[in-house]
C-alpha cells in the first residue's frame, strides 16, 4: 500500500462520474489528532472524454493529486455505452444450433395488449453470430468434443467484417468451462489483438440467453471501458498520482483497476450501488442495521433494502426492462435496487382522462425545470416544491440560480387548468403523486418481500432525498429518517466507505443431503481457492480476505431460491441446521413451509478485503442551541397537512447535539430537508440529520 | 374525513388515483409471490398464470402481470362463485378449475379466489389462476384428444371451499393429491396460490384501513368509470360500421364472425359458430368473451390498465351448444386453440381497417406441447408443459417480430435449453429461428422457431395442440402467407411423422421431437421490398426466406 505512515495526513478522495455532473468528495485525516476535514466539488461531466471531468473536479476541489493515498472512482461510462449504443462491433461464437438464442431471447411481451410490440434488438446481428460443434451436459461432462475446424473461417469473416471484440458462450459452460476456455485460447492464439470475452469469466450460472447476452454486452463495452480506464490511469499518473486507485463495482464494493479492466461490465451500476453501500455503512456506524435507502436525483429515484447491515446483491439484473420492453439481462452481481423515473426534474402531465402523472419524462439539465428560466414550460416536481415554499425561491440551487417564479406559476397554471383546480392544488397534487410513485417503489423492496417498513430506518440522500423523505416515512410508518451530512454527494462518499468486494454466483445443483452438501462445499472451497489466488496476484494476502457464504436453496422442483447464510468452516457438517434455516427463511417470506425434499442450486460467495476505507470521526458538540442556525421563518405548504409557518435553518450551521421540531426546513447548498409539523430533529455526532416521526403517536 | 377539496368525504381525485395505483401494485405483488413459490416450470419459468383484484361483485378492479387471457378468467370465476355460494364469510377461500363452475378454461387451470373483508364487510376479492401440469384424467398432462366428455379430462373442482372460515378443508387437498400424477407438484403449486392470494388480501386490507372503506369503494367506482371512458374514447377513434369475416380452418370447417363498432358499443356476433365438438375443442362462453375483450382492449387503449369498466361497452352474442358456448358434458382440454383461433378471426376481421394497430396474421397458436416420462438422470417422472413462440405478421413500415409468444400471451417466458436438459433429462439439439421460405412481403413476416428435443428414456409420451398447421398465417395488402405450425417426431430409425393435434404419442429413447412454428404473414407486395432490406436479408442468411415468394 502506498499509504505512508510517516506522512502527517491520510488523504482519501472519491470521484463519481454521473450523467450530468462529476462529483468529488475529499477527506483529509490528521494521523496525530484524528481530526478530519472534508471538501466537496462538482463539475460538468465531459462526454465522451469522461476522464477530463475527473481531472477537472480534482482541480476545482484544489486536490494535490500527488498527495492522495486512496482514490475511489465510479463512472457511468459502461451504462452510457450500452444505452447510447456506442460500443464495439461484436462477433459471437456459440454452440452449434444456438446462434439465434440471442435474438429469440425469452419470447415474452410485457406490453401485453400492444399487438405491435417490438422486441429489443440483439447487440449482434445474425451474420456475426457463428457456431461450433461440441457439447457439455448440465453435469459438466463432455457429450461431444469441441470441434474447431471452422474457427479459422469464422475469424477470417469476423476480421473482414470489422469485428472489434469476440464474445464466447457455450451451453453448460457454467458447469464446465473447458470448451469455452479452449475456444477462447484458440481465438487468442489466432488473433491476439482482438478482445475476447467468454461467459464463464463473468458468470457461472445457468440460462443460456442471459449468459450469452451477458458475454455479448461485456464484449460490447470492453474496448470503450478499457480505453477509459487506461486514459484515467494515465491522466492521474501525469498528475503524479501514486496512491491506490479503486473502481466502484455494481455489487457495492470496489475493486482494483486491473481486475475491473478484465470484466468492465461489472461497473454497469456503480453509481447507484455506491450510494446504497454508503447507506449500509452509515447505518452500521449509527447502530441502525436495518435501512430503507432512498436516493432521489434529477431524473430518477432508487431504493434498496438493507438488512443486518448488508445490501442484497443479485445477478437477476436487466437494463431497459419495463412494462413496455423486455430489456436485456446482464448476469453480474448488482445491488438489488428498484429505480423509477421520478426525480426533481420529472415532468407533471395530465392524461386524456384528467388523471395527473409525474414522470418518467424528465426536463433534464436543459431546459430543466421551469424555474431555471431556460424555456422549460412544463411543471416539474422541483417547480411544485418551489411554488409550495418547500424550496426557498431566494436560495434556489444554493443561491446560484434565480428562480423564475413567473415561469413556475405559468407552468402550474396550465396543469391546474387541465385538472380544473387552482394552482396551489395542482402543486400539491404533483407532490402527492410524486411521493406516491416513490412509496410504491419503497413497498416493492420492503412489503413485497415480506419486510415491514416500520422495522427500518430510512436513509435518504441525493439532491431530492431530504425534500420528500419525511413525508414518505410518515406514510410508511417509518419512525426515523437520517439525512447524511454529505447527502448531495453521498454516492461519492459511499465509495470511500467500501471494502474491496467480489461476488461469486455458482450454479451447482445438489440434494440437501449430507452427500449433496459435501459436494457443494467442495465447489465452494474451489471457488474460494481461486479467489485467493487472484487476490494474491494483486498483492492482497489471504489473511486480509474474509468470505461470507450463502447457499441458494429451495424445495425440490421449485425454481426461485432463498439465500441461506452458511456458518463459517465446513457448512456441510452442520447440514441439518442449514436446512432448518432454509425452512424458517422461506416461511417468513412466503407464509408457509412444506414437508418436502430440499435442494441447493448453488452458492453465493462474497469475498471482501479491507483496503483502507474511511473511518469518519465523531465531532465534538459545542453545546450551541439550534437557534444559532435559524435564518428565517416562512410559510410552507405541507400538501395534506396544509400551510404552516416553518422555521428555516442554515444546514451549514447545524452542529452535533442540536435539537428542534417541525414545521421546519433545513437549507444546504446541495439539498433541502423538509420537516413536517410534529416531527422532531436531532443532529448526531457526524452532523447527520435525524428526523423522528410519530414517536408515541 | 372531509376537507376543502373533498367536501363529501369520498376522497379527492389524487387520493382516488393513489388507491388505484396501489391496487395495480397489489396485482403485481401477488404475481411475484406466485412465481417465486410455484413448483412447476410452467408457472415459475413460463409464467402461465395470472392474478387480479376484483370488486365485491366480481368486476375486475386491477390485474397483475402474466397472461391477460388468464386475468380475464378471474372476474368471471368470482361471479360464478357468488352465484353458487351466495355471500362468503371471512376466512373462506374457494378453488375451481371447472369451466362449468366458473373455471372458464380447462381443468388444468386452477383458480383460487379469496374474499377480502374489512371487519364484516366484503370489500374485494383477490384471485389467481395457474396451469397445473397434471390434474388426472386419461392422459399424462391431462389433455387428451380422445376425450369426449369432461370427466375424462381429470379431477373437477366445482368451486368448492379450500378454506372454510379460516379452517383448511383437508379432504379437498387429499383429493387433489390423490388425483394427480404429480402430487408433490400440485401441492406446491396450490400453496403458492394460497400464499399469493393472502399477500393480496393483506395489502387490500391495509389500503382500506388507511383510507377508509367509503373512500376505497369510491376509488374503485372511479377507476372503473375511467376505464369505461377510456374504451369509449377509443371506440370514437375507430371506423364505425359492421365488419364480417369468414375463414377456413385446419379441419375444413369455415368459421365466421361479425363485429359492429359504434361510438358507444362493440358488438361481437358469434351465433353462426359451428355446433359444439364431440372432442375437446370447445370453449365456454366466458372463454369466447375473453377473446373479444382482448381485441377490444388492443384496438382501443393498449396502454392503460384493463378493468371491469373497460369492458362495459362490449357485447358478445353466442349460441348455447356451439363451439364458443359449449354445454355439459362437452370436453375442453384443447379450448386454448379454439379460443386463439377466435381471437385471430376477430383480429383478421378488422386488420384491413386498422393497419396502425393490427399487423398481418402471425403463427397464432398456443402450440401446447407436453412431453412426459421418466428422467433418466434422476429416475423421477416429469411432465414438460410448454406453449411455443413463433413468427408474427408484418405491418406497414416494419417486418414482423420473430420468436414471440402468441397474441393471447403476455409476459410469458420460454424455458431455457439448459434448464430443460437439467430438469427433464431431455437433450435440446437446437433452438433456432425457422429459415424456411414464407411470409414474403414489402415487409416480411417474423420467423418462427425450430426446437429439437431428443428423448433419452423409453416410456415417454407426447401430446400436442397446434393449429394453423394446415391453413397458414395470412398476409395483408399483397404480402405472402406465412408457414404452418407443426410437430415432427423423428424416430431413432429415421422415419418422420408429422403431428398437430394429438395425445399420448409413444416415444422411445433416441426419438427426436421437433417443434416447428410458422413464419408470420407478410405485408405489401414483395417486389417493393427495399434494396437495403434485401441486402440485410442476404447478409443474415434469409435469402431462402424471401426468394421463394418472388
Would you kindly provide a written description of the structure presented here, covering whatever features stand out?
The complex is a heterodimer of chains A (697) and B (550). By secondary structure, chain A is an alpha+beta fold. Among the domains of chain A are: 9-82 and 239-267, Nucleotidyltransferase, domain 5 (2-Layer Sandwich); 86-226, Rossmann fold, CATH 3.40.50; 346-434, no CATH class; 500-609. In chain A, 29% of the residues lie in helices and 27% in strands. Chain A starts with 8 loop residues before the first strand and ends in a 5-residue tail after the last strand. The model of chain A has no long low-confidence stretch (mean pLDDT 91). The longest helix of chain B has 29 residues, at 183-211. Chain B has helices at residues 13-37, 41-44, 68-85, 170-178, 183-211, 213-237, 285-300, 335-351, 417-424, 531-539, 543-547; strands at 49-54, 60-66, 93-96, 109-118, 121-131, 160-164, 167-168, 241-248, 254-262, 265-269, 314-317, 368-374, 381-386, 427-433, 449-454, 460-465, 486-490, 496-499, 501-507, 512-516. Chain B is α+β, with helices and mostly antiparallel strands and 550 residues long. In chain B, the strands form 4 sheets. In chain B, strands 2-1-5-4-3-6-7 form a 7-stranded antiparallel sheet, sandwiched between helices. A 5-stranded antiparallel sheet of chain B has the order 14-15-20-17-18, with helices on one face. In chain B, strands 8-9-10-11 form a 4-stranded mixed sheet, covered by helices on one side. Classes of the chains: A alpha+beta (697), B alpha+beta (550). The interface between A and B is large, with 69 and 85 residues.
